[in-house]
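Can't attach files on this board, so I'm pasting raw text. These are the components:
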Amino acid sequence: MSASNADSPEGLPPARPGRVRVTAPRSTARRVPGRTSVTQEVAEQSAVGEVFVRSLIRSQLRLALIASAGFVLALAGCWVLVRWVPAVADWRILGVPAAWLLLGVGMYPVIGLCAWLYVRAAARNEARYRDLVEEP
Amino acid sequence: MSPAVAFLALLLVSAATVLIGVYGLRISRTTSDFYVASRTVPPWWNASAIGGEYLSAASFLGVAGLIVISGLDGLWFPVGYTAGYLMLLFFVAAPLRRSGAYTIPDFAQARLASRRARYVTSLLVVFVGWFYIVPQLHGAALTIRTTTGLPSWVGAAAVVVIVGTTVVTGGMRSMTFVQAFQYWLKLTALAVPAVILLWHLGMTPGAVPAGTVLFGADDGGSRLGAYQTVSLMVALLFGTLGLPHVLVRFYTNPDGATARRTTLIVLGLLSVFYLFPTIYGVLGRAFLPGLARTGSTDATVLLLPGRLLGGPVGEVLSALVVAGAFAAFLSTTSGLVVSLAGVISQDLLGGGVRGFRIAAAGAAIVPFAVAMLTDSLALAGSVGLVFAFTASTVCPLLLLGIWWRGLTDVGAIAGMVTGGLLCAGALLWGSRLDPGTPGVALLTQPAAWTVPAAFTVMVLVSLATPGRRNAHLGRFMAKLHVPERSLGVPRG
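---
Top answer:
Structure tokens for the assembled complex are below.
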């Protein structure tokens, strides 16, 4: 991070090295001339950057939809078991009805598993995107 | 329980809340500190704070009460409350953090480039917040009435005064510490008495009177109708991601990936917590059957330790439970007051610390008046209605705004207004009908049709007004979805 001394004329040092205001510098800093990185293209909304971003969004959306569909299926399965299968209603484990264990305890590990798998996959999507846009 | 013990518990919780708030005040100095704790809170703290803020009266008292009334079907509520965070993780957590907005209206304005969309969102957020605070105050009133015998308004007034003091003086930096502390207090306050009660029932001969039945012969299955179950789950799954106090918490994560990790920890914390209200519910069905007849089943958690264990141990455990219950009212109410104050002060009072303080006072006093004028419903049920409302209004705005480029300001406003009117209208109409009326569930549990209606209107109107798309949308979408380190645009 460099302190912005954009106020001082080009090439001249500030009159005295007093306090400087540190602002978000990356938007105002002069670009290093030379080749254009993909990161920069993303920032500048070039056509190439746009393609990369769109594909990232698509893969993240697909992941979120698959993950939520998986969870909703598990939830629906659980509901069918406790609502429509009499054998589950009558089944007891150590005196506790199986339906209570399923809904009261069993759903939470399912939620945790879905969440953990999703976080890993989402991070992988982002890592793949980074590999694409950040040159070695 | 003797009133003195209850008072002592209340004093301790209030003192701890104010002290941690004041301790946090020393490092809360700038406007940015006041709103979002400068985004420097580590994931574990942040997750505890989110859990502390989210676990409200409905979770602490309401879930057990609902299990006493409706048995197995009461268990859908904690599953839905937790799974709501799963949907939030999948669709909202990281992009919303990256959007760099402080509040939902900030997001609406940045995404749709429209002041009008911002105002409509602000109105909805304030409405949702107020109606979410009301059940907290009802819970406080119930707790004070049950444990000390004082009039109901004292409990609600105590919550409003304590929350007002901490928020006005400390802002959110101290709130984060207060909320994190209150999650662990709530967990301890439910878990320790539950374990001791179970141990007592299991180990002491004669503790369980002959003929006590934990689960009746017909308790194994679900009796809730198919429509109600689906509608309830739609409301709980998609309502969470529209709650104003939940969203504001995600801005305190340093980046999108941390926001996801924080949510993962939150899911773990919620899962552990919700095991305990279930235990209280099951014990309450067996040992406090009279409550279901009087209709005050939400007091189950408060009364159970004293009923099962007399003497000093029972008193101490009761005090612990009362302390946890108050922590629940205080943390949820203060989280809501902070986020409402953020919205009100930015949109009506021009921002700044002074405006925030005035707005915070307003955000606490209005629900107090509403709570005093209305009667308490079952806590878990009335909170569930707020979830149905946010699922029909804010949820489509966030989901379509984050994932669909076609959303326009006109479409968003039309969808939110349609969803809000349909949902509020159905709930009002349904509450006036006899519960036995055929088809009344369509009105009392409307999420299953109002949420799709809001989405449909939002999409169709947006498609009809393609000219009103945000001109700088590409840049904003990149900001939402591109991981921070590789983004060449300045972050807000």
